[in-house]
Amino acid sequence: MAQAPDATTSAPRGLPKESPRLAKLVSQMAQCSRREADEWIENGWVSVDGVVVNRLGARVNPKATIRIKESANRQPAETVTIILNRPRKGEDGAGEDGRQAIATLIRADNRWSEDHTSFTFQASHLRGLTTAGKLDDDEGGMLALTQEGSVARRLTGGDSRLEKEYHVRVEGELAADGLELLRHGLSLDNVKLPRAQVSWLSEQQMRFVLHDGRKGQIARMCALVGLQVTDIKRVRIGSVSLGKLPPGQWRYLREDERF
Question: What is the pLDDT of residue 171?
Fold first, then answer.
């Protein structure tokens, strides 16, 4: 950077009609991107006249003295992908839409204790974090949230072919040819469904592997062959598995994992 952070710097003189945003001044001072400036502000690394300001969008007097902690220079801007074991919607306040809901689900205190990735949780990790491959309201399990556009496209793009594996609890009596129909042969809304991998895990639990799915698809498929679904849990997307991640907890995507 052109100027080392931690050096006390005053913003240019001259009052504009509206005070400038702190992020703009930080970006100009440190020769960094606006995204980095926002991250530094959110992480509490920027002070104005001796007071830490961590509110995005804050405007400051251009004559104020702005200081940036030296640690900001050592912390490169990073994008993250998070794996959450989400309870079904309505359980423990679970939800997935909107920044407020994400901030409720992704907190420092419910990060999995066995997450040994090198990331240190920062407030900036919630900024721009979006769900990729949503779960239906009656489904729980693996939910991916990402700041990376390429990951979001691979998970939700129209040409996405990533497998999605579900463990499904059922009740009722399966029709004689039900298993084969579940694998290939059913139609929903007059559209034939593509081939799926379906097998029994136990007397009351089945394994479904789909490449793409409609809202409520698994429950509707099961109803057509005499079964009632009581629970659906997604356990894998592509090569990334939920593993031992407890319900309601989350972890960062590891360096050796790829969607």
Answer: 97
